[in-house]
């Protein structure tokens, strides 16, 4: 098993650096849920289909390559609240080896 270290700042402002497995086809949203970094029922409400923006996060790392934003994610962020230029949906970011050192902050609860 190969893990990457990801830092997630929760909605209380607490920073958590956690190991995230790269061999389980998980998304960043699923990592947040697995480590219970947001109250149950407040993140990933749509199940990771880019339809609710409950997993919106702000990407604070500028040097970590992320996958290109697809039209569904872009459309959902266009309609979401609290959107910033560095907003992404955690459900659309697969955990891969390229995410080593990623730092994100969870957006306020919707």
Automatic annotation (TrEMBL):
Residues 4-110 form the 2Fe-2S ferredoxin-type domain. Coiled coil: none annotated. InterPro entries: 2Fe-2S_ferredoxin-like_sf (IPR036010), 2Fe-2S_ferredoxin-type (IPR001041), Adrenodoxin-like (IPR001055), Beta-grasp_dom_sf (IPR012675). PROSITE patterns: 2FE2S_FER_2. Its cofactor is [2Fe-2S] cluster. GO terms for biological process: P450-containing electron transport chain. Keywords: 2Fe-2S, Iron, Iron-sulfur, Metal-binding. GO terms for molecular function: 2 iron, 2 sulfur cluster binding; electron transfer activity; metal ion binding. This is Ferredoxin, 2Fe-2S.
């Amino acid at each position: 098993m190969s893990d990457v270290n990801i830092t997630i700042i929760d909605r209380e402002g607490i920073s958590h650096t956690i190991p995230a497995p790269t061999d389980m086809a998980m998304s960043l949203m699923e990592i947040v849920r697995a480590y219970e970094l947001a109250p149950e029922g407040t993140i990933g409400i749509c199940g990771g289909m880019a339809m609710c923006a409950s997993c919106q996060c702000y990407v604070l790392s500028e040097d970590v390559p992320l996958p290109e934003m697809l039209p569904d994610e872009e459309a959902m962020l266009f309609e979401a609240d609290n959107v910033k230029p560095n907003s992404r949906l955690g459900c659309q970011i697969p955990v891969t080896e390229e995410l080593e050192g990623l730092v994100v902050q969870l957006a306020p609860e919707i």
